[in-house]
């Protein structure tokens, strides 16, 4: 089949239909001589064969004879107009078949061509007119689609604005609510409401995962999917966008038992989650409120759903959460925050530095297991713990006369605000505790000036090798003497210290999450990923990837 195209405009996909092979070949030759962008899709010997092609392939125009076996041209056009009305039809006729051509026009043919007089120029003119009509129709279709899309987006925006006003406390009557639902064409009554809050599991990396990149179009798609799901499942409800990254779904529940309401709502939430993943590639978690009798409780319900969603997400537990399932307020059976801080303060005041990290690890494991503290309480504990560590460090710095280790430049509260999960808070706090206690131990048992300089040198030059000879040259000591001195004062070998500095840097970079693991060897001074992984596992008991999965 030939393909004749000029420029980048869309080709006309054409099917030739005639029971005479010679006529079909003659038409193919004429088509190849036109100046139009043409793609010959198929050359068929009867209407039935051509109809099968049109049903399965992208066709713009058929050029068909009238009298053919199996299925004639008029029957073919009549069926084609019913099934594929967008396809244009041209009739091949002779003078003796003019009444058939007239009948074909009535059946839906666009025009007719006299076999005896047709030339490449004539065919080009006829197809040119047909092409213009097709392009006009496509333009109209695009304009209609664009208009419908704009109307849909505007309706969704008005919907979100209305419900957001209700959430923020706007007062309206039940009659006004239901009247507004009618105006917005939303199947939702003012009584017996459930609220679900839906949020992407990974907003920062969402663009890499979802199938729709434009945020406005994505919001519309999410809302439409949730609307359709609720309408199908609950026969009521809608979705609206609330603030950034949050979608809120509402629906009416019937006179159900508490167990039935719970099971049904969880089923709806699971289907919404599945559909968003399947259709958009969007992974979400869902928080579900308690039921409410009146629409005036929407604001309270939204906060219930959002609170349970945020609580679960903070502790790294995603997917679907029911408000009443989450123990978000401490009770008498749980150790209060201040008691933990008091014990930490006692350990610091008595210089039991070796107990600090194990104690904090035990506390955080207990908090993470019970998930009783809110995100705010966990972060408050972390900041207060760091302040206690800094207070201890200032005390030792003053006692030793070494002001170079003053922690006053640190801003733990600013760092804490940006930690998204309990795992991040845990890693950050344990790392800070390790650094501070190591510094404290050094202040209690100060190293010589040469060893302090070597430690500072390693922290600056670990990525460029920082060999023992380079360190010895830096402090103007013999390499072997420095090795013995370092071991004597610090209790570890120089090479082990370099390794620990590099491993600490790797941990920090992994927790920051901005650099791929594959780039870490070059950054910290290791030859390749295999060697880095081997050393990391020897020191920590796990590979870098295992560390990342466990901590984040």
From TrEMBL:
CDD domains: REC_YesN-like. One of its GO terms (molecular function) is sequence-specific DNA binding. The modification 4-aspartylphosphate is found at residue 65. GO terms for biological process: phosphorelay signal transduction system. InterPro entries: CheY-like_superfamily, Homeodomain-like_sf, HTH_AraC, Sig_transdc_resp-reg_receiver. It comes from the Bacteria. Keywords: DNA-binding, Phosphoprotein, Transcription, Transcription regulation. Residues 452-550 form the HTH araC/xylS-type domain. Residues 13-130 form the Response regulatory domain. PANTHER family: ARAC-FAMILY TRANSCRIPTIONAL REGULATOR, HTH-TYPE TRANSCRIPTIONAL ACTIVATOR RHAS. This is DNA-binding response regulator. It comes from Paenibacillus herberti. The lineage of its organism: Bacteria, Bacillati, Bacillota, Bacilli, Bacillales.
């Amino acid at each position: 089949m030939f393909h004749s195209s000029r420029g980048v405009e869309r080709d006309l996909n054409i099917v030739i239909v005639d029971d005479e092979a010679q006529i079909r070949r003659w038409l193919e030759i004429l088509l190849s001589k036109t100046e139009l962008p043409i793609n010959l899709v198929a050359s068929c010997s009867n209407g039935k064969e051509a109809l099968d092609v049109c049903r399965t392939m992208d066709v713009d125009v058929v050029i068909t004879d009238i009298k053919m076996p199996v299925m004639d041209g008029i029957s073919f056009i009549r069926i084609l107009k019913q099934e594929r009305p967008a396809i244009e039809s041209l009739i091949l006729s002779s003078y003796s078949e003019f009444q058939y051509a007239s009948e074909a026009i009535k059946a839906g043919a666009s025009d007719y061509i006299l076999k005896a007089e047709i030339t490449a120029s004539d065919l080009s003119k006829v197809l040119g007119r047909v092409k213009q009509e097709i392009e006009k129709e496509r333009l109209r279709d695009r304009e209609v689609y664009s208009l419908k899309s704009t109307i849909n987006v505007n309706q969704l925006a008005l919907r979100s604005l209305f419900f957001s006003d209700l959430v923020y406390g706007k007062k309206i009557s039940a009659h006004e609510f239901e009247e507004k639902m009618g105006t917005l064409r939303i199947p939702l009554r003012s009584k017996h409401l459930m609220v679900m809050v839906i949020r992407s599991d990974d907003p920062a990396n969402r663009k890499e995962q979802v199938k729709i990149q434009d945020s406005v179009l994505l919001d519309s798609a999410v809302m439409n999917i949730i609307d359709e799901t609720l309408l199908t499942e609950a026969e009521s409800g809608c979705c609206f966008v609330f603030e950034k990254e949050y979608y809120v779904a509402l629906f009416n529940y019937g006179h159900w038992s508490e167990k039935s309401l719970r099971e049904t709502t969880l089923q709806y939430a699971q289907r919404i989650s599945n559909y968003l993943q399947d259709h958009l590639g969007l992974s979400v978690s869902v928080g579900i409120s308690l039921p409410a009798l009146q629409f005036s409780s929407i604001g309270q319900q939204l906060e219930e759903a959002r609170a349970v969603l945020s609580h679960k997400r903070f502790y790294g537990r995603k997917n679907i959460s029911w408000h009443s399932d989450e123990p978000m307020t401490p009770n008498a059976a749980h150790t209060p925050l201040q008691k933990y801080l008091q014990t930490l303060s006692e350990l610091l005041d008595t210089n039991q530095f070796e107990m600090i990290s194990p104690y904090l690890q035990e506390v955080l494991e207990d908090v993470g297991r019970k998930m009783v503290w809110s995100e705010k309480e966990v972060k408050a504990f972390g900041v207060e713990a760091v302040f206690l560590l800094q207070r201890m460090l200032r005390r030792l710095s003053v006692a030793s006369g070494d002001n170079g280790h003053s922690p006053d430049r640190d801003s733990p509260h600013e760092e804490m605000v940006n930690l998204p999960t309990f795992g991040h808070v845990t890693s950050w706090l344990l790392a800070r505790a390790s650094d501070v206690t190591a510094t404290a131990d050094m202040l209690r048992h100060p190293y010589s000036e040469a060893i302090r300089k070597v430690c500072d040198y390693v922290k600056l030059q670990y990525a460029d090798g920082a060999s023992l000879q380079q360190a010895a040259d830096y402090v103007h000591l013999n390499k072997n003497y420095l090795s013995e001195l370092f071991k004597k004062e610090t209790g570890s070998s120089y090479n082990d210290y370099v390794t620990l500095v590099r491993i600490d840097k790797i941990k920090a970079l992994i927790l920051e999450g901005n650099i791929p693991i594959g780039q870490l060897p070059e950054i910290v001074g290791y030859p390749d990923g295999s060697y880095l992984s081997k050393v990391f596992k020897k020191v920590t008991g796990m590979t870098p990837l295992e560390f990342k999965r466990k901590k984040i």
